[in-house]
């Protein structure tokens, strides 16, 4: 599930698995589908 974040009047979409951010929700969703970060050990 892509996370939506607003910063500086821009909406960003972050991959819930690895935290990578996109400015396009479709890009984010597509990335997340293919994201293989199964162990996000660096997430705090
Ligand atoms: Zn990812």
TrEMBL record:
InterPro entries: DUF7128, Znf_C2H2_type. It holds the Pfam family DUF7128. Residues 13-40 form the C2H2-type domain. PROSITE patterns: ZINC_FINGER_C2H2_2. This is C2H2-type domain-containing protein.
